[in-house]
Amino acid sequence: MRRLLECVPNFSEGRDLSVIDKITARIRSVDGVKLLDVDPGAATHRTVVTFVGEPEAVIEAAVRAGAAAKELIDMSKHHGEHPRFGAMDVCPLVPISGVTMEETVEYARALAKRLGEELGLTIFCYENAATRPERRNLAAVRAGEYEALPERLQDPQWAPDFGPAAFNRRSGATAVSARDFLVAYNVNLNTTSTRRANAIAFDVREKGRVKRAPHPVTGQVVRDDRGQPVWEPGALKCVKGIGWFIEEYGVCQVSMNLTNVSVTPLHVAFDEVCERARDRGVRVTGSEMVGLVPLGAMLAAGRYFLRKQQRSTGVSDAELIKIAVKSMGLDELKPFDPREKVIEYQVDDAWGRRLVDRSLRGFVEETASESKAPGGGSVAAVLGALGAALGTMVANLSSHKPGWDERWEEFSDFAERGKRCHDELLRLVDEDTAAFNAIVEAWRLPDGSDAEKAAKEAAVQAAVQRAIEAPLRVMEVALESMEVAAAMAADGLQASVSDAGVAALCARSAVIGAHLNVRINAIDLADQEARDGFLARGAALQAEAERREAEVLARVDGKLG
Fold first, then answer.
1. CATH topology for 4-178?
2. Ranges in the chain annotated CATH 1.20.120.680
3. What's 337's DSSP letter?
4. How many Cβ atoms sit within 10 Å of the Cβ of residue 314?
5. Helix (H, G, I), strand (E, B) or coil at 75
6. What is the CATH T-level fold of the domain 183-346, as seen in this structure?
7. Rounded average pLDDT over 111-139
8. Where does residue 427 rank: exposed (0-12), middle (13-18), buried (19+ CB within 10 A)?
9. What are the residue ranges of CATH 3.30.70.670 in the chain?
10. Residue 465: how many CA atoms within 13 Å on its side-chain side?
11. Residue 354: its pLDDT value, please?
């Protein structure tokens, strides 16, 4: 697995595109880093930049970008809607693949040290990289913003983690963190009242608002026994939010940071803002994604809105994203292009498209070429994916059959199962080819010394086992998809019963084809016990696939007459 970190620095410049271009040019100058997104905002006077790469390359690019920001941005002249205290205001690192959060914390602190020692920036570490508990929350670190820095830096309790404690009027301070993926999400309102927008933000954000009694505006602040204000929490966990007016759009927004979309998903935040806005006589007109969003968040939103319509959720990712975009009005202010806004798509495009992203003709012609991969294993996975997709199609059609309205959820569940199968089988198309390539690379390792020979043999055996496990997984998933085909042959739409039969045929062929790959690759596995186990498992899966195919075809034949 490629070791990838995402870096999302925010720069206090959103109006002079020449400055932004010079900063991003420094990022592009680092080999091994891919710039994914540049999102400037004129009203916020802030640009969110997203890039990914190997950890060491990401750190180097962040240092170069920090140097450019220090040279080009003068914080003493900066004014914008967004909270800020530095030229490179924040610089979070996010683990994407092959890197743990613990490792990301170490990388963040290494970055903070370089920014402080090499560039002379005043650096605070926050969230998972925080050096003390009171610095975990960015709002606490950035309290009072740029204007409060001269006084705060004189307080020993707020001495920076790295770099000088002296106030730098041009560059201010920078906050560096290691954190989970954060979704920056703004909901558009049909009002120009910042007060109304803030009230809605306070309703939904986890922090909530200061409690007042008895009147919420003119009443006195309620305090606890220690004299501290009492806070009334908002509706949504892991959500930060404020309301602001965006001059370029002429409307207010509730601007939110969703710090954990598994706790508060995108669609939940949207619906909650809609409800709280309605309570205050305000209407939500759409929303805006700032920076990138995880694919899972968009798919979950699409499924949520389809369920509200009592429609099958086992549709393609593209359809789920389309439903999410239209339901939340993500294209109200500007077009929403999934290839540009979804992090996984950006990463795929940055490091080359997969086999499954080719056209059908392109895949067939690549298979027919003189290259040894893709071969039978990848083709077996394609067959399995096609079979699973056919079963899913029948389930989706059945869920919309007039007169079967009360059964939509039953068929939607089958469609979901089929979709999970064809999604994994598509992943296995590339995994099978990658496993074969790993064997080729292992055989090319040097073997001059005894140590090199031992290392090469270990690498070869690990690659061989991977090349067995990939087609074995194809067999397992293709067999699982036959349960959907069987259910659709028995109870699905009568007009599509032949499609359920073809689904079973494809799945059985995928199982048998993948089994051939298991058998040929097992020849080179030195561990006799493991080899026997793989072969026994493969034989059992093939026998079960042949049995299920016969059952499905018997049902199909019975209905066709």
1. Formiminotransferase-cyclodeaminase; Chain B, domain 1 (3.30.990)
2. 355-560
3. -
4. 26
5. helix
6. Alpha-Beta Plaits (3.30.70)
7. 95
8. middle
9. 183-346
10. 13
11. 81
* DSSP per-residue string spanning 6-20: EE--EES-SS-HHHH
Q: What is residue 216's predicted lDDT score, i.e. its pLDDT? A: 58
- Give me the residue label for tokens 């056209």: 359
Choose the catalytic residue: 82, 267, 422, 515: 82
As a whole number of angstroms, the distance between CA 396 and CA 306 comes to 12
Q: Which of 89, 161, 271, 432 is catalytic?
A: 432
d(CA 54, CA 98): 10
CATH number of 355-560: 1.20.120.680
| Catalytic residue status for 82 | yes
Give how far Cα 115 sits from Cα of 161, 174, 334, Å: 11, 9, 35
Contact call for residues 238 and 259 (beta carbons, < 8 A)? yes
Q: What stretch(es) of the chain map to CATH 3.30.990.10?
A: 4-178
pLDDT at 1: 55
- Residue 534's pLDDT band (boundaries 50, 70, 90)? very high
The arithmetic mean of pLDDT across residues 181-186, rounded, is 92
Burial 389-425 (b: 16+ CB within 10 A, else e): bbbbbbbbbbbebeeeeeebeebbbbbbbbbbbbbbb
Strands (E), 224-357: 231-232, 239-246, 251-258, 284-290
Examine the pLDDT at 352 and tell me if it is beyond 80: no
DSSP state for residue 359 in the 8-state scheme = -
User: Which class for 30: exposed (0-12), middle (13-18), buried (19 or more C-beta within 10 A)?
Assistant: buried
422 is catalytic: no
Residue 412: closest CA among 482, 487, 476: 487
Overall average pLDDT of the 36-48 stretch: 92
